[in-house]
Records
---
Amino acid sequence: MRQEVRSLDPLDSPGLLRARSSGAGLGTALSATLKRDLLMVTRRPGDALTPLMFFAMVITLFPLGISPDADQLALIAPGILWVAALLAALLSLDGLFRTDHDDGTLEQLMLTPHPLPLLVIAKVAVHWLVTGVPLALLAPLLGLMLSLPEGSYLVLSASVALGSACISLIGAIGAALTVGLARGGMLLALIVLPLFMPVLIFGSGAIVAVIEGGAWLAHLAILGAFLCVALMLAPWAIAASLRVSLHD
Amino acid sequence: MWAFFHKLGSPRWFYAIASRFEPWCWALALILIVVGSVWGLVFAPADYQQGNSFRIIYVHVPAAFLGQSIYIAMAVCGFVYMVWKIRVADMAAAMMAPLGAVMTFMALLSGSVWGKPTWGTWWQWDARLTSMLILLFLYIGVMVLRATFYRLESAARAAAILTMVGVVNIPIIKYSVEWWNTLHQPASFTITERPAMPVEMWLPLLIMVVGFYAFFAAFTLTRVRSEILRREQSKRWVQDMFREKC
Amino acid sequence: MAFDSFSDWLAMGRHGVYVWTAWGVSLGLLALCVLLVRSEIRTVRRDLRRRIRRAAATNGGGQG
């Protein structure tokens, strides 16, 4: 749906317009995108808090649904911490492109002469900084509540941080494909969850490995490898998907 | 040679060529599946360890092969569509998807039923079954995504992108699930990793596999013909063809 | 022949339920696919024929 775009947001005009009209370099465009997205988050802090609250509440569901027994919880803690973090990140993905799609900023972004895949990386980076990193920082506290064994908290944070970066990248593909669709959120989850499973396996595997004294660094290294591959390939898929969605 | 492929991209030519090959594919599929089934069910020797439940392999393995192959074929079709804009490729990808999902489901069901007498449980989170389950999710995702778009071309491109993303992920998923499985079940006995099968056992299996592939070809050719008629119904050649029939 | 009698074959050495369920559902699904595909192309052709006939009739009526 094409709308006459007259951005009412005074924050984005200077940077993006300058980048677009004066043919300014890629760096200006990237920093403008980064700045704008970060400022959007500060205006709506709820966007950043909601995934964290969801994370905490889902973790609370497990003792309620299973048992408050510390030993039982400690056994399943790595897995449910990771699943809850994954679901929280998934929930926040739907909004990644939706607001920009609805007010026409996405179209503006696509009209710039700068390569869309790179601009997309900027947006996904902000999403990770705003969602993934807080999740990684909150995880140890929730791990404590689940009687997660000592010595695994650092690896917990590291694996959630690395893994959520992969999730942001891979999930952005799904978000781009479903941004123009009604009730796209559910469909987003459907198409993107199978792709998350390897990240989950190695993410929670790292925590289990450090608890059992195994090769936790190898697990984190594989997560890093996933991240590298995702950084190389996902931006192109995201850009192509955005083009499909906007032409629908 | 190149001209042949180019012709194939034209719906009209594809329809003509598909109509010629279709009956042969059905015939081949029928013969091979019947021969393979009878051989596997009646004549092949029972397995030393698993007894007669082993015979399930003759439907499980072909279904598993096809579940994976069809997804890869869909990804190839999607790639051809995105790069060369050949619409017949997109039609093929759309038409073969349900069969791929059915085959994957068949593999899951037969694998699960096979597991009961072998391991004692209806479901086992072993590497093969788990990967098959994830593949089924991938299929359903692509089919639902394609159905949700309003415009045909957007649906085609979206499905192509998702299928290609999925196909890149399939080896990653398989490797990850295998790794996950060895971590938690060090002494697992997988269904198809066995000492070399004697000829009397793998020959009917081969026949069934080829028969299933022939079925896939026949199925896809027929459905693509339907889809071509549906999409091209306003074209002259379709109108002429049906006017003659009246 | 791997079996001594027909009832032996049906029983599949205690595994009859499993073998026949797996095989039955699999071949049943294949048969279902065949039926659905054939009915699909039949429906498409029938609808097309109808549509063309109707178009020809209205054209003929218009001209006549």
Note: Residues 4-59 of chain C form one domain.
---
Amino acid sequence: MDILIIGLSHKSADIGDREIVSKKILTPELRQEFAKKLLNLKDEGDRPLIKELAILTTCNRSEFIMDLSPWAVGKEAHFIKDYISGYFFAKKGADNLFYMYLNFEAAKHLFSVASSLDSMVIGEPQILGQIKDAYNESCEFRMNGQVLNKLFHKAFYCAKRVRTETKIASSPVSISYAAVELSKKIFNSLGDKKILLLGTGEMGKLTAKHFIKNGVHNIYIANRTKEKACHFVEESFGVNEKNCIDVIDFSEYYKLLPHTDIVLCSTGSEGYVLRYDDIMPVIKLRKQRPLFLIDISVPRNIDPEINKISNVYLYDIDDIGKMIEGNLEIRKKEAGTASELVEINAKEFMEWKNSLNAVPVIVLLRNKVKDILEIELSKYIGEKKEKDLIINSLTNKILHEPITLIKKAAVDSSEANMLETLKTLFNLDLGTDKENGHKRNNDNIINKECEKGSGDKNNLSKIKLIK
Amino acid sequence: MIFMTAGELYLIPFFIYVFSYMFLLLRKKRFYQVFISLIYSGFIIQSLIFFIWLNLRGFKGMMSVDWIVFFNAWIIMIVVVLFNLFYKAKYILIYITPIVAINLLLGFFAPHVYINIKSIFSNFDQAILLTHIILILIGDSLFALAFIISLIYIFQERRIKIKKNLKLFDKKNHPFDEVFYQGKGYNLELLDSMNYQCLKIGFPLITIGIAMGIYLSNSLFKSFMIVKPIEIISLATWLIYAVLLHERVAKGLRGKKAAVFSIVGFLLIISSLSFSFYLFPEFHGFK
């Protein structure tokens, strides 16, 4: 019944190691295959160690989120970690690349990840979508269950609270966003503007995508190898985005400059692609209309002197980076408040999870009381329907207060012995319940108790919604 | 209204404008609507004062220095409200309303003296004089707007050029902060476009106004050749705006240089108006 998270991220492993893990669980098929192997891990008594599983994989992290079987103890968690480490790496000491969190720490970690507190760029919004994908996939592979359902929903809820109640996401920090925002300071509307993208870098792609999102319809892409540019467009952009893009010969980009309003440069060239003397005549041809140049390549591809030309505005990656730095500071300040929210939610989750420990005891106790009542009342009441009604009513009345106390005891660690005392007092044995012939839909009762404990009766409908 | 003098009436919209800025300075989003409502209320009251006074006194009532200043404030406000509606640029309203308020205050302190034009102008010339004043004031209001827009342009262009104090993302979400701290809506293209619109509309009005002024001067002094300081400054102003318009249309001049031209042109207008109305009325050519 323990929550276990084993994984590696940008904080624990370098990009090379992360790539090795990521490649082996890159596709859903690969992930399903590995998940099956994990779920088949058994203890010495040939009992499965893992009840529920979800695999989260992003460019910066790979994590395995598990709900362990009740009989799995600390030793088994290390066994699972060794197995995961051995699956991905042949080298010795690779288990040091992986971190491991159990129960409260695991919940706190997942909530922090979902709230983007553990991300490379704090507050970035993509991570929550990636966690939702991981959860959906777990549902699809039927690897989820009551505990992971609750854990993930609590993570989504926590992430939402963090985003709305703190300023962690109020100041965007991506280069592409900054480029678009800067453009809006120069141009009134981006819809009628022409953008020239020089090079086919990742950053250029993201920025071009962001410009399209902001209404740009004309983007020209020029690369030294035209085929590479065509392939880049084919691979990187959706159908609608492709309608806004034209690939041109690299030799022709200069002819396009007088008609271009924004130039995005991300080539791998070692020298300047655009020089001061190139831009001077262009500005005259443009009749002094403003020209915005964004140089996101390292080393720089646009001559910095160009910024001195009237109506030309040049920003390189450092200039944009400085603007983003301020926002990162804001986010780091907000992270403290966000961590408190994460901790509160993790505590709430653990309370709910601990309350589950009481459910089997409650079920057994109810059954015991019902059995006694049934035997005694059968002597006086013949009609089954009437008898069952009375039995249920009396059981509820007798056990209302004890059940409340049992639930409290399950949550409160200082009263951990109460459950054991109760079992001894009433001779409740988890293993013998079914053997004694009780066929009273115990699962239904367990589910009802769990729902009461979680206070979340819409859990199942929420799962369907996310699916 | 009849219990109040014209000067006291000017103080009603003046205090409304001043009061409205208190709501803006509270920096609470819910108060921004109160600010806007008060500004528009002030404008409506200004308009009511204008039309009621016009109804009571007729056009001859306009021939007092304080009334001309009040009229100027009203025209500026019309231009600002129209620009605000067309361009959705809230900063225009925020920046120009104080100028309107100052104009109203000047109107209160300006001499409430009627200029007796009946004795010096024929009926036809009186109409020409009135049109001259209205055209010049509308043109000047547009140039005043262009002046403010140009100042904002130069300030914002500098921030973008030197890459300092340029807040991109600080979402405080209140118009006061958006305008003064983030420069939201201050895109250079829109500022330049508004500047050009002011010039395109204002220049013909000023041209006709100056032509009428020259005609009136001829009518009054019986000669085109009497050169007065106001005429020199007016012609110099006209020349600056003519060059600016020509450069914009023919050579596509825009941006910082165009903004500087607008600023210089307006400073000349201010000097000519100050000289002619407040400091040396004889500067205009009449006492």
Note: Chain B has two domains: 1-115, 118-287.
